[in-house]
Amino acid sequence: NHQVDEASDAEAYVKRLHGVKPLMAALVGELEKQEAAGVKPPKFVYDLTVYEAQNLITGAPFDRGADSPIWADFKAKVGKLSIPEADKANLIARGEAGMKDGFGPGYRQLIGHLKAAQASAGEEDGIWHVPDGEAYYRFQLENYTTLPLTAAEIHETGLKEVARLHEEMRGIMRQVGFTGSLQDFFAFVRTDQQFYYPDSEAGRAQYLADNEAILQRALAKQGQVFGVQPKSDVVVRPVEKWREKSAAKAFYQNPPQDGSRPGVFYINLYDMKAAPKYQAAAILFHEATPGHHVETAVAHELTGIPSFRKFGGEAAFSEGWGLYAEGLADEMGLYQGPYEEFGRLTMSLMRAVRLVVDTGIHAKRWSRQEALDYANANMPSSDYDNRREIERYIVLPGQACAYYIGKMKILELRERARKALGAKFDIRAFHDAALKSGPLPLPMLEESIDAWIAEQKAA
């Protein structure tokens, strides 16, 4: 992601490489302070972290073998510069020194510390096991949802929404003529090969091509629901091989301020069983358009507001918007057929299950296995997919609750505006009003929408 358009960019890159060593030394120092205070993640976290860190320093120039991805990338960028060959050679030599003397040693220090710390790590999964863990979790819930909700309230909301979504899924079962229980239907979509791409390069290529077609479908209708649209483009790319094992199944990366590259919707193709066909549309609508790309790019392109308002981020707003966008896509007529509709419901169900499981782990003291058992019993996704999700909730207490809580608030405000404005209500104007100030805490979003409603009524 580090642009190298001229020699000074490469020099800045080299400086950053050397800066990794003191950065990691500082990080290890902070870890040591936390560990002395009794704060350590569960034992399973260490292997995942070490694996990804080790991948960053595997290959030349860190050891023998093919070039590491970061080294190959740096050499390619320098090679494209319009400078004398001798200057290119000098930059590459300095880059190699930066990797050998700064980047590599920094990561080796981190890896060494993590391996040593893992030996005394515990198996308890909830944040309650660390000092002041219960108070910390209460803080995390309000931090991520921006609302004063208790773990018990969130847990109960999750249970109710899981039951409601299960009933909608039974409607899909009837629509496709499936006989049996909902769990039978889950087993059917989890195992029947018609719902999965081949675990091959051809299968992965087809998955990417199909996602590109879905993206174009959404972009063609984007103007129907937004007055203000992103100036930046968005593209579909696979997660790079070196990080796909530990990366999320899909995610969005915003474009830089200089417009040198588009926003990117990344798809993880490591486990094709975790990428069923019926979920592809809903995931893209969440991460790209009308989801994160619209919400993020519009915020970054705003003028007249301070930078922290553009880039700071509020999980309840942004992730709530992403989940809201999955339903908005349904209103736009973007889902094709009952199984894509089922995919939309499965993604909503996952976020409702998060309310139950996150609070279960961190407030009700569920084990990782108890949380996994609940997810496997209530969702059609694979055991592998659910396991990765549970591990995420463990290391980010409270974050998983932001999605559904945020979506519910956006829908509540939209319905309030629709009732108050009647024939004056315009969905495009509502969305523009919701996005005009960048990501906001939900109480501030509510104030902003209420003010907009008053303005529209007075107009």
Write the layout of secondary structure elements.
Blueprint: H1 7-36, H2 43-56, H3 69-79, H4 85-118, H5 133-145, H6 151-176, H7 182-191, H8 201-221, E1 234-238, E2 250-253, E3 263-267, H9 277-287, H10 292-300, H11 307-311, H12 315-331, H13 338-362, H14 368-378, H15 383-395, H16 402-421, H17 427-435, H18 442-458
Parallel strand pairs: 1-3
Antiparallel strand pairs: 2-3
Helix pairs in contact: 1-4, 2-4, 3-4, 6-13, 8-9, 9-12, 9-13, 12-13, 12-16, 13-14, 14-15, 16-18
Features of the shown structure:
18 helices; 3 strands; globular; mainly alpha; 459 residues; 3-stranded mixed beta sheet
Order of helices and strands: HHHHHHHHEEEHHHHHHHHHH
Number of helices: 18
Characterize the overall form.
globular
Read across the widest sheet, the strand sequence of neighbours is 1-3-2
Poorly predicted regions: none
Estimate what percentage of residues fall within beta strands. Answer: under 5%
Q: Report the structural category.
A: mainly alpha
**Major sheet: size, sense and barrel closure?**
3 strands, mixed
Overall mean pLDDT score? 95
